[in-house]
Amino acid sequence: MDNTFVEDGGHAGNIQTELESTPLLRSTSVKPKLQRQITLTGAIAMTVSTVIGSGIFVSPNGIVKEVNSVGVSLLIWLGCGLAACAAALCICELGTAIPSAGGIYSFILRIYGKLPAFMFIWTFDLISNPAGLAIIHLTLAKYFVVLITDDPPDWAHKVCAVGFIVCLCAVNCIGVRFMSHVQTFLMFFKLLAILVIVIAGSIYLGEGNTGYIEHFFTNSTLTPTSFTNAFYTGLWAYNGWDALFHAGEEMENMATTLPLAIKIGMSIVTLAYLLANIAYMSLLSPFDLINSKAVAEAAVTVSLGKVYGNIIIPLFVALSCMGASTGSIFMVGRQVFAAAREGHFPHFLSLLHPKRNTPIPALVFPCVIAVLLLFLPTSGIEKLIHLSQFTMWIFYGACFAGIIVLRVREPDLHRPYKVRLCCFKYDL
To answer: Rounded to whole angstroms, how far apart are CA atoms 389 and 140?
Structure first.
C-alpha cells in the first residue's frame, strides 16, 4: 500500500516537474525556425485574400476619376495587375533563393546589410504596417456595425475594430494551418461577392442597358499626370502581392509552390478586378461611379435591389476585409519575428509557441500598436500610410536591383526559380 503510494507520488512528481519545466514560449541559443505547413491551395488563398480587401468594393473609382474613360480605366486595371504580377515573379527569385520569414526585410538584409534592413523594419513595422492594420479593421468594423444599426456612434466602430484585431490576431496565433484554412474559406466569399456583382452587371446588360459602356474611349483625359496618378491608384489596389514572401519558411515545396501560387493568385485577382469594374461601369453612370461612397452597394442595388445592395454586399465586404486583415497580420508578424531573430527588435519578439510553432509575441506586437493608432484621427492614419507607400516602392526597387547584385556577388547561390533579365550576361 505504502509502496504503491510512493510510486504514484513519484510519478506525479515527475509529471509536475515536467510541466513546470515546459516553457510557454520556446527560446533556444539556435535561431528559432518555423515549420512548413502551407500548401499550394493555402498559398493561393493567402495571395487572393490579402490583395482583395475593401477597395474594389468601396472606392474603385479613383482611376475613372483621373482618366474619365471606361476603356482606358480597364486598360490601366489590367496593366497594374500585370505589373504587380511581374514584380512578384521578379522578387520570386529572391524568395526561393532566400526562403526566410521576413520577406522584403530578409532580402534587403542579405543583399545590402544590416543598416538598410534596420531602417526598413523600423519604418514599416513600427508605423506604416500597424497604421494599415488600423485602417483595415476600422473599415471592417464599419461594414459590420452597419448591418446592426443605421446610425452607429464613432466609438462603436473603434470598439468593434479592437474586437476584430483581437480575434484575427488569435486566428494567426492558433496555428499556420488553421489560419490557412480560414483564408481559403474567406477567399471563396470574396470571389462570391465579385460573382454577385458580375451577375448584376450581366443581368443589366442583358436587358439592353448598354448606354454607359457603348463608347469605350470617348472623352478620355489621358495626360502624363493623370496616367501616373491613375496607375499609382491601381497599384494600391493590388497591394499585398508580396504576402507569400513572408511565408518562405512555412511553405511546402517552396521552389514550385511560390511561383505557381503567385501566377494563379494574381491571375484570379486581376480577372476579378476587371470583371467587377466592367460591371460597375455598366450599372452606374460616370458621375455616380465617381461620386459614390460605396460603389458595390450602389451598383448591385440598381440591378438586384436593396436586399442585395444593403445587406448581402456589406456582409461580403466585411468578410473580404477579414481575409485581408488576417493576411496582413500574418505578414507583419513574420517580419517582426525575422527582425527580432536578427537583433533588430527585442529578443522576446522572436519566441515561438512550443506546440503551435507560431511567433505569438511578434503577432501581438503590431496589433497592440494598431489598437493605439485607432484612437488617432482617421485622416492622420491615412497620411502615415500614403507617405510610407512611396518609400515602400523604393525598397521594392532595391529588391529588383538586388537580383542583379546577388547574381554578380553570389553566382553559385542555389536559385530554384530564375527570372529572365534581358541584356544581362548572368544567366539570361
So the answer is: 21
